[in-house]
Amino acid sequence: MDKKKREKLEQLYWKMTEWFAGDPKRIQHFVKVHSFAELIGKGEQMEEQEQFVLEGAALVHDIGIRPGEEKYGRCDGKIQEQEGPAAAEKLLKELEFAPEEIERITWLVGHHHTYDNIAERDYQILVEADFLVNYYEDGIEKDKIQKSCRKIFRTETGIRLCETMYGVTIKISETWAQDNIREMEEFIESQGIYIRQ
């Protein structure tokens, strides 16, 4: 990434630190999400501009927390997606991000808690980076990490990170479908419904 873009990301990093001044938990969260997004993006060999937008989105992805808390007294994912884009747009304009960069970053901020129909790489990577951090910060159990990773993670780099960090196996084995069908049949039978011949 060229020097000018790197400097712009550093300015954004500081602006977000000031945005969450006095809230080290939120600052550490976006720093970690940015770090993982950067690593996954590089591992997936993203083009420079795509990487720049991804990293910008990772830095501001939770910017909607503060306005959500101020307006509604809460900051769940829906509120973050609702309140985040406008706050991100204002900050990105101050730092003279290009209009197309602002448009994409604010779109990502407005969708980073929506996990169906993820088609674009920057969106996929942002979600994976956020999950990697949330699993740890929320103390999620290993079996739940493994199940959700299998549903969410798609990039080779993100899968490798999750498997290494949490000691889970995400890649689906050849017998995965059979094992899950058997597990589902056993669950159904335990509910008193019998389907086996």
Automatic annotation (TrEMBL):
It comes from the Bacteria. Residues 26-123 form the HD domain. InterPro entries: HD/PDEase_dom, HD_domain. This is HD domain-containing protein. It comes from Candidatus Eubacterium avistercoris.
